[in-house]
Structures are given as C-alpha cells and as structure tokens.
C-alpha cells in the first residue's frame, strides 16, 4: 500500500509538472501571435499608400481570387477585435481599400500600366532588353534586386501622377470658384437692376408731380411777363 501511494504521488507530481509547461507554451504562443499581428499592422501602415500591391504584400501577377484570399487572411489576422495595436483600425481600412482598388478593373489597369512603365525604365537603365521575362538568368544577380528597383521606380511614377491629379483637381476647383464668382456677380447685377427699376416705378408719381409743378410755374411766369408789357 505505501508503495502504491508513493507511485501515485509521483505520477500526480509529474502530471502537475506537465500542466504548467503546457500553459506556458500556450501563453508564449498567444504572445508570439499577438506580436506577429502588431508587426503586420506596422508593415501595412508603412507600405506605400498609392500601391495596393504593396499594402496587401502581393505580386503584380496576382489573380482576382488570390487578391480576395489575401485580403481575407489579412482582415482576419489584423482585425481590430483581435489586435491590440492602437492603429489596427487604420490598417484594416487600408487593406480594404487596397482590395477594392485591385478588384476595380479600370484602376488596376492604370496601376499595372504604371508598373510596366517602371519596369521598362529600370531595364533600360540596366542596358537590358525591355522584353526580358522575370525569370531570366540575367536578372538574378543584380543588386539591388530588379523587383525592388521596379517598385521604387513605380513609386516615383505614382507620386508624380498623384501630384498631377491633385493639381488638376485644384485647378478645376479654382475654375469652378471663378465661374461661381462670375455667376454671383451677374446675379448681384440683376438684383441691383431690378431694385433700381422698382425704385424708378415707385417714384414715378413723385417725378410726374414735380414736372407738373415745374410746368405750371413756368406758365405763371410767362403770364406775368405778358401783363407787364401790356
């Protein structure tokens, strides 16, 4: 009996020792997971805002299904309810916008055209044929990597395009402002004319009365002169 009791105590001690280890592993796993979520939020916030491929961390060749899948993964991973990062909601909005832009056929075509232009410019700078495929051996040992250079060049082009777009918007707003001011001045002029016309009509009787008085006064003067001469 004492031996069985001793054996049971040893087993219980082992079990008791194992449980804390499992709990520690779970705790460490949760902390590591939370840390990874925060790192991903930071990556999204630091990504170039005009390039949705960079925000979603996708290659330019990604299909519509791959875009949707990546968005679903990221949205679950960095969801504000699961991530303690203070700016998680902002990162969440960014990935949603990025998915929307890449699934918009027209916007993606415009973006892809800019990326292709960047690729051509980079290859020309490297004195390489612009028709080279991405897996061409001549691109492997280039430093910094060609993809990195293309992203950087695309960033420059996208910034230039955004600056032009904002200038155009500003100019349109200025033109609209001038047009609105012109219309406002025209309306004010019409209002003044209408008021002047109304005042003219309102004072008609007064003017007529003044004229009659003036005419009558002149007639009396003439009659007085005639009487003197007689």
How would you portray this structure in words?
- With 230 residues, the chain is mainly α.
- The chain has helices at 2-46, 52-56, 64-77, 88-103, 105-125, 146-202, 204-229.
- Mean pLDDT is 83; it is low at 10-19.
Number of helices: 7
The topology string of helices and strands comes to: HHHHHHH
Oligomeric state: single chain
Report the β-strand fraction as a percent range: under 5%
Principal-axes shape call: elongated
Class of secondary structure makeup: mainly alpha
Radius of gyration equals 42 Å
Helicity range:
over 70%
Largest sheet: none
What's the β-strand tally?
0
Spans where pLDDT lies below 50 across 5 or more residues: 10-19
Distance, first to last CA: 169 Å
List keywords for this structure.
single chain, 230 residues, mainly alpha, 0% strand
């Amino acid at each position: 009996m004492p031996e069985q009791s001793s054996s049971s105590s040893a087993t219980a001690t082992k079990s008791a020792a194992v449980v804390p280890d499992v709990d520690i592993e779970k705790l460490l796993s949760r902390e590591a997971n939370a840390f990874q979520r925060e790192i991903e939020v930071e990556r999204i916030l630091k990504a170039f805002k005009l390039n949705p491929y960079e925000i979603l961390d996708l290659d330019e060749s990604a299909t519509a299904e791959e875009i949707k899948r990546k968005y679903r993964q990221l949205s679950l991973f960095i969801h504000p309810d699961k991530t303690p990062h203070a700016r998680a909601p902002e990162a969440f909005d960014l990935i949603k916008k990025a998915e929307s832009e890449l699934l918009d056929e027209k916007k993606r075509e415009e973006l892809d055209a800019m990326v292709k232009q960047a690729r051509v410019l980079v290859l020309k700078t490297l004195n390489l044929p612009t028709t080279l495929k991405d897996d061409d051996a001549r691109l492997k040992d280039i430093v910094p990597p060609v993809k990195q250079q293309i992203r950087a060049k695309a960033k420059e082009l996208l910034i230039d395009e955004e600056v032009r777009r904002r200038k155009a918007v500003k100019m349109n707003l200025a033109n609209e402002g001038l047009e609105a001011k012109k219309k406002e001045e025209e309306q004010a002029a019409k209002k003044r004319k209408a008021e002047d016309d109304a005042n003219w009509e309102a004072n008609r009787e007064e003017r007529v009365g003044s004229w009659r008085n003036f005419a009558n006064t002149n007639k009396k003067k003439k009659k007085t002169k005639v009487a003197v001469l007689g």
